[in-house]
Amino acid sequence: MMKKQLAVVMSAAVLAAGGWGWAGSSAHAAANTYAVTVPVHGEEASQQSVTYADVFVSNWLASLPDRVSGLYSPEQDVYEGLLAGGASIAAAAGVASSTIISDLTAIFTKDAQNEVAYGYLTEQEAADAAKQLDSLLPKLIDQAWTGYDAAAAALNPGREALNNRLSQLVQLTSGISGVSTADLRAALQSGQSLLDASGLEEADLTAYLLSGLNQELDRLVNANRLTQAEASGLASEAALDVAKLVNTKGYDAAENKWMDTYAQSIIQTRLNSIVRLAVIYADADYADVTGALAAGQSLQAATGMDAGVLVGYLQADVDKALDAAWMSGALSSPKLQEWKAEAQKQLLAAVTANSYATAAEAAPDIVKESLRSVVGQAASNMGVEAAALRSQLDGGTTLAAAADVSVDELASTLYSSVAAYIDQAVNNGWLKQEAAASTKEAAYAELLAVVDQAGYAGEVDTDAYLQERTDRIVNDAAVVTGVPAAQILEGLAQGRSLAAAAQTDAATLFKGLMKQTNKEVNLLAATGSLSSQDADSVKADYSAMLLEALNPAAQK
């Protein structure tokens, strides 16, 4: 596989419940699209790919002591004490290894079948997971228990902890010095060092900045996530980095690829509301203004305001938000000035463009995406397995015939999820509001043809699908963690890792994302949109991409 660039487009929420793919809470939706490019070294990364079967087994085995305790109810204090002293699980429980293995295997088999029933695992993946268990369980039961999390072993928590600490130096310095972040950043902007601006002794400041990291490194060593040698190396690296950074005159937030993305999202939020804001500033009638826009006028003409004056009002609001981003470390000083100038350009273009924010042509890609779930949705409505419906379609029947309803009736039933997807695409920023109506019309016309097409397959292009999944990785992280995607983006712009920005750890985020993606790929395979071979390929490529996204490089 050649090296390639995958564009990561981060939107503020994900697909609506009932639509295809990730079902997210609309409470986290915002009409912003965030785009940035990250490198994916396919050949190298694919060697690190971890399947969801691996994740499932790893999660299951991680709680072996609790599972055994729940089965055999040993004296808890004695049991925990023996484990802490280096006894095996079997010895600590006082139960024969063969009995434990037999009982646990039976439980695992039921749990794996539940995963199959919910679509997270295929039957083959469940069989592969069972083979892993058969190989691992005897060793883990009969040796000293030191924990087990093979899926997390592919991640680099020590480097992540170091990078996250370095990204928060100004905020941490504010906390110990009592100097506000605003005053610290102003002093830095004037050419002072962080040490000078804090008023602290260097030894006190650096000790404080390093203490939290050293505690985290110790925790990772105790949890067997790092070796002592790895932790010591990172601690030494951190000491050198912190000593250099606190003495850097004019220290500024390290620029990263997310800063531009975050700044554009701030501007886009204002552009999404520009007509409403212009009406307020002009003290005009909203219906009159939107009518004038529909008739082909510009926003300045529709409101009767001078373009420069209107942009000035709008710019003040954007500048305030950009200043706040700089204050939080989500923009460097040069980026702040760059994006204030860019905001002025975009705002001026918006207020002088004719017919701004009026009806636009349909978006073919969104139409295609909105229809991707129709076979699965039809199967759900019919109360049959997706694979069973796929078999009928392969026999030459149509969706309408299989459902024993008219084409119009089935299309009308399925349209609700199609429309919900398009509405969510607008909320996420994947589709402009002015294109929503035409996109829905196009989708419904296509839907009528789909439900009346014999043997409809709805094939998915694997490259396009993987790109789409990659494009929405932060939206997916928002669903898994419940943290709004806009908030995750701000954390990324501040230099934090994806997991830290999503307020979780990388292992938990990786496992959650793998689980949900495996489920949707399995559904695409079950409905015939992906072949089994293509589904396996997509899963492996997604896993490799995800590991690379979650494994940070050293900061430069």
Question: Summary?
Answer:
The chain is mainly α. It has helices spanning 42-46, 52-62, 64-72, 76-84, 89-93, 97-117, 123-142, 157-166, 169-177, 181-189, 194-198, 202-222, 228-246, 257-272, 274-282, 286-294, 299-303, 307-327, 333-352, 364-370, 374-382, 386-394, 399-403, 407-428, 436-451, 462-471, 473-481, 485-493, 498-501, 506-526, 532-550, and strands at residues 4-11, 33-40.
Task: Describe it.
With 556 residues, the chain is mainly alpha-helical. Helices cover 67% and strands 3% of the residues. A two-stranded antiparallel ribbon has the order 1-2. Helix 18 (307-327) packs antiparallel against helix 19 (333-352). The longest helix has 22 residues, at 407-428. The radius of gyration is 27 Å and the shape is flat. Residues 1-47 have low confidence and may be disordered.
